[in-house]
Amino acid sequence: MLESRRNLALACALSALAGYVDGIGYLQLGGLFVSFMSGNSTRLGVALADGHWQHALEALALIVLFVAGAAAGSLVVLSPLTHRQPLILFVEALLLTAAALAYAYGLPNAAVAAIVLAMGLENAVFQLQGGAGLGLTYVTGALVKAGQLIAAALTGGAGWAWLPNLMLWAALVAGALLGTFAYRSINLGAIWFAAAAAFALSALVAATAKRTD
């Protein structure tokens, strides 16, 4: 999926968007995540072990919302609709806009819920009909793949095949850096920038899809 420049650029842009949003969510939630469910699953286990039921419930609620968003994105992929990529991105942009509006009206919990749904949905952008796809809101898989391809390169394989996966990781880190700065300036209002970016990506993907039809 990362072999074409178009796919690599889009994947890095979406990974950066996820990092931006996750940085904001992490600060808002005091250590929980809106896109990294492995971290939330660990926090859930620790909270259950310590008997912190409220913390456990919060982590579980985030996981459930993320799965719901991922399921919604997969329903779009499996539907007979055309131009599914821009449609998924457009719905993501609407969810992020809803989150920004919820925060503006004093509903931070509703804002976080919409953000988590959006992050789950984003992972369907590169999903194939058979269910396989590319994770965009977490990079553990990308780092594992980078390590495997580095090993392959050292034993005679393609010399730079690992680089796209490392670029995904770098994009997420850069996004988290920007999200942290934005949150510390304007709190959850920083989600407006994420919504605008998602709208722009949806329009760009739709335009490029028309040119290739």
Number of discrete helical segments: 8
Radius of gyration: 17 Å
Largest sheet: none
- Which word captures the global form? globular
Give me the count of strands: 0
Average residue pLDDT: 89
- Cα(first) to Cα(last) distance is 19 Å
Assembly level: single chain
Helix content: over 70%
Structural class, by secondary structure, is mainly alpha
Q: How much strand content do the residues show?
A: under 5%
* Order of H and E elements: HHHHHHHH
Low-pLDDT regions: none
Can you describe what's shown?
The chain is mostly helical and 213 residues long. Helix content is 76%, strand content 0%. It contains eight helices and no strands. The chain has helices spanning 5-29, 37-50, 53-78, 84-104, 108-122, 140-154, 163-186, 191-212. It starts with a helix and ends with a helix. The mean pLDDT is 89.
Write a concise keyword list for the protein shown above:
single chain, mainly alpha
Question: Can I get a quick summary?
Answer:
The chain is mostly helical and 213 residues long. The protein is built from eight helices and no strands. Helix 1 packs antiparallel against helix 5 and helix 1 (5-29) runs parallel beside helix 7 (163-186).
What's the SSE blueprint?
Layout: H1 5-29, H2 37-50, H3 53-78, H4 84-104, H5 108-122, H6 140-154, H7 163-186, H8 191-212
